[in-house]
Amino acid sequence: MIEVRGLTKRYGEVLAVDELSFTVRAGEVTGFLGPNGAGKSTTMRMILGLDAPTSGTATVGGLPARAQPAPLRAVGALLDAGAVLPGRSAHHHLLALAAGNGIPRGRVAAVLEEVGLTRVARRAAGTYSLGMKQRLGIAAALLGDPPVLVLDEPLNGLDPEGIVWIRGLMRRMAAEGRAVMVSSHLMSEVELTVDHLVVIGRGRLIADTGMAEFVAAHSRREVAVRSPQAAGLGPLLTAAGARVRPSGADGLTVTGIGAAEIGAVAAANGVELHELTPRQTSLEEAFMELTQHSVEYAAERGETR
Ligand SMILES: Nc1ncnc2c1ncn2[C@@H]1O[C@H](COP(=O)(O)OP(=O)(O)OP(=O)(O)O)[C@@H](O)[C@H]1O
Fold first, then answer.
1. Is Nucleotide-binding one of the keywords UniProt gives this record (predicted)?
2. What is the predicted pLDDT for the residue at 212?
């Protein structure tokens, strides 16, 4: 379990992380979301003990990362998948990590197998594709068989197969009872994978919620309607209990009643329809609405520099 309490980081004028408090629970994948520059990496680095907080605390299993007697056994991390000596093979990279952390050599073969790199384990890591480097980074994170995993943007730059693989791995790790924290700046990357969401903007907590609750609160059903008589149809739908927004010259966006009901109202009034499309608003839109203010702030801040 990761516990973050009142965590704050200031870099000179920039308040990168501002009084953040949240918990990453065992047995769950927690998505850590925020627009670029929101403070995700800084928060993760403090959780991992790579940066010191200005104030507040971050603990893993009850202890700050720097106080862990065996850090790699307490928490596995993927920060920058490119950070491997290019001349060193995956096998030797992992062996060196294991030796430096008192981890049995046998774990090396086990994690290479887990991430599917066994066949190329003797090749220099500099020749690996981004997806293979990402797998090697994950292998290093898993080496100490830690109960907590912290993954910073693990899907960045991966092809669809790599994305599916990492999503499956995160689910598997949570099912084994581990606490998994994964950052992203895209809701669509994590919405199918995470159990819990922590959203930040400008270093501050914006939302801390179960994924199911977030979906229930933010996914709206709406129907796109097009008709040459849109102007006349609007009030008829409103009278039937719908909320109606105009959309272009001959379009309406309708919520509150379904496509069948809209069709019935149109037919009963002799209104010709050219389109009647039910659709679900995306969670990406909800996420963007939620973080809009912090993005605008970031843009303004950039302009005045
Ligand atoms: N070492 C540093 N020195 C000064 N400012 C920093 C440093 N590290 C981060 N910052 C600033 O802190 C803020 C948060 O950055 P951070 O990298 O944590 O955000 P992020 O959410 O991870 O963004 P991204 O999605 O772009 O990686 C930004 O304004 C950034 O410029």
1. yes
2. 86
pLDDT of residue 86: 77
State residue 283's pLDDT score. 80
Q: Are 169 and 178 in contact (CB under 8 A)?
A: no
Determine the residue type at 183. S
Answer yes or no: is the C-beta of 123 below 6 A from any ligand 1 atom: no
Per-residue pLDDT of 235-289, as tens digits, reads 999 999 999 999 988 999 999 899 999 999 999 999 999 999 998 777 887 888 7
The CA distance from 233 to 178, in Å, is 54
CA dihedral 116, 119, 122, 124 (to 10 degrees): -70
Each domain of the chain, given as residue ranges in start order, spans 2-209, 220-280
pLDDT band for position 82 (cuts 50, 70, 90):
low
Closest atom of ligand 1 to 41 CA is 22
The DSSP result for 8-24, as a single string, is EEEETTEEEEEEEEEEE
Please list, in sequence order, all residues whose beta carbon lies within 8 angstroms of the beta carbon of residue 251, skipping any fewer than 6 positions away: 224, 225, 226, 230, 275
Q: Taking the CB of residue 234, how many other CB atoms lie within 10 A of it?
A: 18
Per-residue confidence (pLDDT) for residue 4, from 0 to 100? 97
What pLDDT, on a 0 to 100 scale, did the predictor assign at position 39?
94
Question: Is residue 52 classed as helix, strand or coil in its secondary structure?
Answer: coil
> pLDDT tens-digit profile of 16-28?
999 999 999 999 9
Q: Is 50 helix (H, G, I), strand (E, B) or coil?
A: coil
C-alpha–C-alpha distance, residues 240 and 143, integer Å: 61
Q: What is the pTM of this model?
A: 0.82
Cα–ligand 1 centroid distance for 3 (angstroms): 21
Q: Nearest residue CA, atom 4 of ligand 1?
A: 11
C-alpha gyration radius of the chain: 24
CATH top-level class of 2-209: alpha beta
Nearest CA to ligand 1 atom 16: 39
The CATH-assigned architecture of domain 220-280 is 2-Layer Sandwich (3.30)
Task: Tally Cβ neighbours within 10 Å of residue 149.
Answer: 25
